[in-house]
Write a structure and sequence with these properties.
This protein is α+β, with helices and mostly antiparallel strands and about 625 residues long. Helix content is about 35%, strand content about 20%. It binds adenosine-5'-diphosphate and magnesium ion. Adenosine-5'-diphosphate binds near residues 47, 91 and 92.
């Protein structure tokens, strides 16, 4: 922490903001001021968080509350002094909390925030809540901010003050102050409006109506009125909630700036009693692929906030979902540690997942274009769920999975749609794994399938390597990789017609295969005549039951495999180069030509070449010869 401290007097300390904090302050003051209303949303949101925290702590330590048991957030205006005060009786902060939370921004968030800001105020403003820099928005309207706070259960109070100019001071506060935090904004000249009841009331209605605690306004005459309903949004009747209210709640609960793509508000009654209000974002959260794979649906028990991060109420492959679940059945004193192994939680989770999947199914049916956007954002994350062998909802999940396929790489289809389009005699689901639909379509592996009009599912997400190894069939149709050796792409009569090989041809083929096996001994498992190649001379395939090649490369890179397995080389007898080789296996360069064919099979598959310098020597030798002739 880059906090410098110089003693002024016995208790007063002057500190310097961390470098990034200063940058954020500058940004707030100089470029985001056109959207300054949001300061109130941020400060009320912090006050609400503080009340939530104390309410949770008080479950095990009721003495923290003393007689002050009703949480509330008060806004107090003073037109003479041109100040607006935001006061809460939440958990409060001691000196260390103030330094840690108000002096430096949670370091992880800060840099990310700065990296993400684009210089467009409209977009940047959306990022404030997301990155935990909300407190600093106070400086958009105030040229001085005073924070007085008393932490629940502690005696001392502290006063924090800053003009947003790079420094702040902390002092002990010896006057009367009750539990919680009082933030006084010394308003800038152009921010007088924020002492006006109508102005403030409008902002609270717009942004903070959903807050579960009463928010009141007291004007300069001392008259107090209520500004919000003071009941958690999810407890209200669905029909009484507007789209805007849902959106504001989403922004609050998700710390997000986008709009929810889908809002799911449900009340379950019966054996399990709970309310869930869940949102699917329209853009992926920035930490979606963070190795922690943190889930963030908040768990409440009878309106009391219990926990947020990695609660088992939502599976990890739904970690992009934001929102709350409020249970009536769980005990209030449930500890965060025992949450993971709670049966009731698992039951609720199961119900919630079923509900989400059925809603996604509906959406795919009723608004495919919109569903496709969702799928492009979160499909890869969802497919992680297919790898969880114990998940009871795995089959349902696969049913809503969408894939690109060789018939039309731009269209996302379900496996049911794939099966519907299958010719009668096809009983397998063919798939190809690769880095992009384009490269897969250009791959020799697909030549035969494309020629025969057999559709192939194109799998290009990394997670695909894994789930195809755990789910072997869908609706009694086996999944079969196109890279499996011995795969029969042509299942029709034509194959038999082709089988009219003459005795001499058969002998030549046998000799060629024997020769190539010998030439490539130690490098290939086998050499076979391909049934799927139509225009390329060669391709690689894996043995029946062998691991898919991309998966193997992944495990090799992770050092989970010591060495690559040997592949099968498939050759296309119709190709001129292969024909030439067949007629010339006694020539001097026949061995090298075999090796070159094998090299190119490796290259096109993304496998590494055995010896790159030998390869270039060989390659150049053939080039020279071609150029000379
Ligand atoms: P965030 O709310 O995302 O953490 P903020 O910049 O809004 O980021 O607030 C920073 C931190 O300051 C909060 O996490 C909290 O620890 C502390 N804080 C802010 N306001 C209050 C308050 N009214 N009561 C207690 N703590 C507060
Ligand atoms: Mg905040």
């Amino acid at each position: 922490m880059s906090t410098k401290t110089t003693k002024k007097k016995s208790t007063s300390e002057k500190h310097q903001f961390g470098a990034e904090t200063s940058k954020i302050l500058q940004l707030m003051i100089h470029s985001l001021y056109a959207h300054k209303d949001i300061f109130l949303r941020e400060l009320i949101s912090n006050a609400s968080d503080a009340c939530d925290k104390l309410r949770y702590n008080a479950i095990t330590k009721p003495e923290l509350l003393k007689e002050d048991t009703d949480f509330a957030i008060s806004l107090i205006a003073d037109t003479k002094k041109n100040t607006l005060t935001i006061k809460d009786n939440g958990v409060g902060m001691n000196k260390k909390d103030m330094i840690d939370n108000l002096g430096t921004i949670a370091s992880s968030g800060t840099q990310k925030f700065l990296d993400k800001t684009k210089g467009d105020p409209k977009e940047d403003i959306q990022l404030i809540g997301q990155f935990g820099v909300g407190f600093y928005s106070a400086f958009m309207v105030a040229d001085k901010v005073t924070v007085i706070s008393t932490k629940a259960g502690q005696k001392k109070s502290y006063i924090w003050e800053s003009k947003g100019d790079g420094n702040y001071t902390i002092d002990e506060y010896n006057e009367e102050h009750t539990r919680g935090t009082t933030i006084t904004l010394h308003l800038r000249e152009d921010a007088e409006q924020f002492t006006d009841k109508h102005r403030v009331s409008h902002i609270v209605k717009t942004y903070s109506d959903h807050i579960s605690f009463p928010v009141t306004f007291t004007d300069s005459e001392g008259e107090t009125s209520n500004l919000n309903e003071g009941a958690a949004l999810w407890t209200r009747n669905k029909s009484a909630i507007t789209k805007e209210q849902y959106q504001e709640f989403y922004k609050h609960v998700a710390h997000a700036g986008d709009e929810p793509w889908m809002t799911l508000h449900n009340k379950a009654e019966g054996t399990l009693e709970y309310t869930s209000l869940l949102f699917i974002p329209s853009t992926p959260p920035f930490d979606l692929f963070h190795p922690d794979r943190m889930t963030r649906v908040k768990l409440y028990v009878k309106r009391v906030f219990i926990a947020e991060e990695n609660v088992d109420i939502i599976p990890q492959h739904f970690r992009f979902i934001r929102g709350i679940v409020d249970s009536e059945d769980l005990p209030l004193n449930i500890s965060r540690e025992t949450l993971q192994h709670n049966n009731l939680i698992h039951k609720i989770r199961n119900n919630i997942v079923k509900k989400i999947i059925s809603e996604l199914k509906k959406k795919a049916k009723n608004d495919k274009a919109s569903f496709d956007t969702f799928w492009n954002n979160f499909g890869a994350t969802l497919k992680e769920g297919l790898c969880e062998a114990v998940d009871a909802n795995r089959e349902n999940l696969l049913e809503i999975c969408h894939f690109r396929s060789s018939h039309d790489k731009d269209k996302l289809i379900t496996l049911d749609q794939y099966i519907e389009q299958m010719p009668q005699d096809q009983d397998k689901i063919y798939y190809a794994i690769g880095d992009s639909p384009e490269s897969l379509l250009a791959s020799p592996q697909l030549e035969g399938f494309i020629k025969k009009g057999i559709n192939v599912i194109l799998l290009t997400d990394h997670v695909d390597d894994f789930w195809v190894n755990t789910m072997h069939e869908y609706k009694e149709k086996d999944f079969v990789s196109v890279t499996r050796a011995g795969l029969d792409a042509d299942q029709d009569e034509e194959t038999k017609d082709n089988d009219t090989t003459s005795k001499e041809d058969q002998e030549e083929q046998d000799k060629l295969i024997a020769f190539m096996k010998d030439a490539l001994s130690g490098k290939v498992l086998d050499v076979v005549i391909s049934k799927k190649l139509t225009s390329s001379p060669v391709c690689l395939s894996v043995q029946e039951g062998g691991m898919d090649m991309r998966m193997e490369r992944f495990l090799l890179a992770q050092k989970q495999l010591a060495k690559p397995s040997l592949k099968v080389l498939e050759i296309n007898l119709e190709h001129p180069v292969v024909k030439h080789l067949a007629h010339n296996i006694t020539s001097d360069d026949a061995k090298e030509l075999s090796e070159l064919l094998f090299d190119q099979a490796c290259i096109i598959e993304g496998e590494s070449i055995y010896d790159t310098s030998e390869f270039t020597t060989r390659f150049n030798k053939f080039l020279e010869k071609a150029l000379a002739s």
